[in-house]
Each structure stands twice: as C-alpha cells, then as structure tokens.
Design goal:
It is a single chain. This protein has 11 helices and 13 strands. It is an alpha/beta fold. It has 3 domains: 63 residues, Arc Repressor Mutant, subunit A, CATH 1.10.10; 130 residues, 3-Layer(aba) Sandwich (Rossmann fold); 129 residues, Response regulator (Rossmann fold), CATH 3.40.50.2300. Strand 1 and strand 2 form a beta hairpin. Helix 4 runs parallel beside helix 11 and helix 7 packs parallel to helix 8. The longest helix has 16 residues. It is globular and about 70 Å long.
Length: 359
C-alpha cells in the first residue's frame, strides 16, 4: 500500500494545524472553525474534518458542541527520545515490502524521531499464539514499547496488563484496555456479503486466520455469519472452516472445498492468500469469476497489476501510521494513552466477482 500520493485539501489543512500546535501557536484551546476557515481560506467542513483528524491523533480533545477543543499536546522538550520499540509480527512473512509496506514508513518515522525499532526474533505464529510462551519470550526481550500485529484476544489481554506500554495493530482488541488502531472492516464485510447474495451466491466461504474464528468468530467473521443468516442461508463449518495455517494446509482446505459441492464465492483474509487461491484455481481450470467469485478483505499494491481487477476492502494506512507515531510520542513523554481508533474502510467492487453460476 503506497503512501506517496498527492495530499487532499483536508490533509494539507490537518498538516498546517498540526504544525501550529507543535510550534505552540495556540495555547490551551484551538480557535473556532470560523476563525480558522477565514485564516486558511477553506470551508468550515474542511476545518471540521481536519480538527477531527487531530482528535483521532490525540493532539486535541473535543468538549462538546459549541465549546472549543482542548490542546493536549505537551511541549516538545518534555519528550524522552531513544525508545527501543519491538514489533511482534503475527507470522514470519516480511512486512517491509509488499502488502504491508506502510510498516516501513512507520519504522522510518519512528527512527527519524530518534527511536530504535526492530522485529522480535519470533512471531506470534512461531510461538503458537500461546500466552504462556509469548509472555516468557516478551519478558526476556529488552524493549521499551511493543507493537503487536494481529494478536488474538488472549494475547492482547495479557499485553494490556504487561508493565511495558503496548499497542495493538489490528487483532481482536475489542473490549481490551489497550491502545490500538486498524481499519473498521466489519461494516464493509457486510456490504461485500450483501453484494454477493444479491448476485445469487448461496455457498459462500470465508477463509480467515485462527484468531479471527476461535474460540468464537470475531469482527468481520461474525458480521459475515450474521449477514448470511439474515439472508436465510444456513451457516456452518463450510462457511467459516478450520484449517491448518500453512501453505500445505491452505491447499488442503481448497481441495476439500472443491471436492464435492464447491463454493460459488470465497472471501479471503489476506492478499497473499488471495494470490495463492488464484494460482490454485488457475491450475485446476476453475474460472474467476465465472465459476467462483473472489474477494480479499485487505488491499495490496499488487492488485493494481491484476486483470480482472480485484474485489477487495480498501483502507488508508496513513491515519494508522500517524496514530502509532503519536502513541510512541506519548509513551516517550510518560503520558498514558490507551485510545482505540478505527480507520474507515471501503468495499471496492472488482472484476473477480460476478453472478453465481447456474447449477
């Protein structure tokens, strides 16, 4: 997901206001929308969106309708530099390139601020997503802050009680008092599922990682199952199957799905799974979307090169990157910050979905 593109007017205004706060231009409260709109020569709506962005970042705090927003930014000279920031990945896949290229941007910004970042020697998957093993590993790793990528509910619950500040990037964080950020996918998953049902699909399978389906379905998986139930489609293990999370396990799952009564649509969790599924189907002469429709619940730079275009869920990584940078800044200052933020996501209808095949 590339971060290099032209900034919108809202983003430019957000940057200007952020810079003003950092430089101490305003004290205690922000000016009203009318004053800022006149000064910057933009609409009141643009100012309001920019102020909401700064609220999401934690720079300002709303006090209710008709009241000025509080500035909560601490003076720059209070910051303690040089934190050791550990990234705990969900798998051993490389994150500096490809589908999660924004991690590289995040690390660059943190290191530019004087911190040290590193990936831990073991991933959540290598540790079996086991709380006991993870706790032993983490407590023996020297770090001043942890960023956990796609952690399970029990894992994030443990980190929320750990003495070292921790941030949940994605994962099953709902209801846990831990700082976090990620895209708001469940509502968009509902939209995508409804679209498939409207095209006549009744046999829809969603393939997600274990932490998203066990011990109970969460987030997008829960929204998907509720939607097909609402449409009168009976659900079971066919719709949300268990599988061994490896290349061999993924192939075995697809083979079992297409052995007898195959799905007419598959929703896949990750971009690498999507590409693996496309290869599997192509080698077996199964056509997309004539025989089966595919949707990916994430986006990737590689999708821009795909024909037909890929149906997927798109979200902007930049607010997430800014949120983590701001959280680290708070940690460096000794300020507690456990806010959870959600980034808006959007369903992109692509050429990998079509009408359900006629039996």
């Amino acid at each position: 997901m590339s971060l290099s593109r032209f900034s919108s007017i809202t983003e430019q205004v957000t940057d200007l206001l952020r810079m003003g706060i950092h430089k101490g231009r305003w004290q205690q409260t922000m000016p009203g929308r009318t004053r800022l709109a006149l000064e910057l020569r933009v609409s009141h709506k643009t100012i309001e969106r920019a102020l909401c962005n700064l609220e999401t970042e934690g720079l300002i705090l709303g006090q209710g309708k008709g009241r000025k927003r509080l500035i909560v930014e601490a003076p720059k000279n209070e910051a303690r530099q040089g934190l050791r920031i550990a990234f705990l990945k969900d798998s051993a896949l490389p994150y500096e390139i490809g589908d999660m290229s924004y991690i590289l941007e995040l690390r660059h910004l943190l290191e530019e601020a004087g911190h040290t970042t590193f990936f831990s020697e073991k991933s959540l998957k290598e540790l079996g997503m086991d709380v006991g093993r993870i706790a032993a590993f983490v407590t023996h790793t020297e770090a001043d802050a942890w960023i956990i990528i796609a952690g399970s509910h029990p894992v994030l619950e443990w980190f929320s009680k750990y003495s070292t500040p921790s941030f949940a990037l994605f994962g099953r964080r709902k209801g846990i008092p831990i700082a976090s950020a990620g895209p708001d996918k469940p509502p968009v998953c509902v939209t995508a599922t409804r679209h498939l049902i409207a095209l006549g699909h009744q046999r829809i399978t969603m393939i997600v990682q274990k932490q998203h389906r066990s011990p109970t379905p969460g987030g997008s998986a829960e929204a998907f199952l509720k939607e097909i139930k609402t449409a009168g489609i009976s659900s079971g293990t066919f719709n949300l199957p268990d599988w061994e999370e490896s290349k061999e396990g993924f192939v075995a799952l697809l083979e079992s799905l297409f052995e007898h009564t195959p799905p007419t649509a598959i929703i896949l969790d990750e971009a690498f799974q999507f590409h693996a599924a496309v290869y599997f189907l192509a080698t077996r002469g199964i056509r997309i979307p004539k025989d089966v429709s595919l949707i990916c619940m994430d986006s990737a730079p590689s999708f821009a090169w795909c024909e037909p275009s890929v149906a997927h869920i798109h979200w902007d990584a930049r607010p997430v990157v800014r949120r983590i940078v701001r959280w680290i800044d708070n940690v460096a200052r000794g300020n507690e910050d456990k806010r959870q933020t959600l980034t808006k996501a959007k369903f992109i209808e692509g050429g990998t979905i079509g009408a359900a095949p006629q039996c």
